[in-house]
């Protein structure tokens, strides 16, 4: 559904593109959530354990920036992942003010079991696009996301 805004053509185009981007993202996220490939975790919890699985232990502030969440929200997410036994906090040996978050053995096992299914579900969602279209979309989205203001 395009915008119903009747204004400057460049604004109308930008708004229409924004609507399409948001609706597409909402539809994809909904499909991923329905696929059951996140092991019962919320999307933010999954993003955190996936980052730790692929990047190793990270300071809590870097995790928050990586998954685009506030530090307060990240504290709650990590608290809940700790209760599930998937992550642990460790004091940084060089700076006591920094708390590093790492996967527990259970966390590593859980992610190693659920991530392949998740990756396959994502691949299936993008099969509507050719590999070239996927690369081009990636370039466009990177350009859009990295713009300076």
Short note summarizing the structure:
65% of the residues lie in helices and 8% in strands.
What characterizes the major β-sheet?
Answer: 3 strands, antiparallel
Please identify, by name, the CATH architecture of the largest domain. Answer: Orthogonal Bundle
Rg over CA atoms, rounded to whole Å, is 19 Å
Structural class by sheet pairing and helices: mainly alpha
Structure description:
The chain is mostly helical. 65% of the residues lie in helices and 8% in strands. It has two domains: 1-35; 41-145, Arc Repressor Mutant, subunit A (Orthogonal Bundle), CATH 1.10.10.10. Helix 1 (9-35) packs across helix 5 and helix 3 crosses helix 4 (71-83). Strands 1-3-2 form a three-stranded antiparallel beta sheet. The mean pLDDT is 91. It is built from six helices and three strands.
Topology:
Elements: H1 9-35, H2 43-55, E1 58-59, H3 60-66, H4 71-83, E2 87-91, E3 99-103, H5 105-126, H6 131-145
Antiparallel strand pairs: 1-3, 2-3
